[in-house]
Design goal:
By secondary structure, this protein is mainly β. It has one domain: Thiol Ester Dehydrase, Chain A. Helices cover 14% and strands 36% of the residues. It is built from one helix and six strands; from the N terminus they run E-E-H-E-E-E-E. The protein has a six-stranded antiparallel sheet, with helices on one face. Strand 1 and strand 2 form a beta hairpin. It starts with 27 loop residues before the first strand and ends in an 11-residue tail after the last strand.
């Protein structure tokens, strides 16, 4: 294993099991379908306006779905270079949300992916992202 590459230290804000301030989302990966899914129920602390989940929380969930899927399937860390999000309708604390993501293209160091968040049959938000594979020559600062 190349120790020059970033590694998972279980402190990810979205899925890290050792991050007491994190969301604690548990993703399931379907390697054959090249997809990822999870469920998350936001709490009152995840609000922006009263009764509405903050768009940054929703964006973080979408970003993690794409990035985690690429990392696990491809075996190399990726960072999001670009992400566009369309917010369709608000989510409220207490709503059970389903997050799904999938890889749409992989060319050299570039990975394109998409993700969406749904409440039942209602699409809450959807994203398209461009992710870049990190190589040993890239400058990444470790916090440890």
């Amino acid at each position: 294993m190349n120790t020059d590459l970033p590694r998972d230290n279980n402190r990810c804000y979205v899925c890290g099991k050792e991050n007491p301030a994190g969301l604690g989302v548990d993703f399931a990966i379907d390697a054959a379908a090249r997809s990822i899914s999870a469920r998350f129920t936001p709490k009152d602390v995840h609000q922006g306006y009263a009764g509405i989940v903050h768009g940054g929380i929703l964006s973080a969930l979408l970003d993690e779905a794409m990035g985690k899927l690429a990392f696990v399937l491809l075996g190399v860390p990726v960072v999001t270079a670009e992400m566009s999000v369309k917010f369709r309708t608000p989510a409220a604390p207490g709503d059970e949300l389903r997050i799904t993501g999938w890889i749409t293209e992989e060319v050299n160091r570039l990975v394109r992916a998409e993700a969406k968040i749904e409440r039942g049959l209602t699409v809450i938000a959807e994203a398209k992202g461009k992710l870049v594979k990190i190589s040993a020559g890239d400058k990444v600062r470790s916090t440890e």
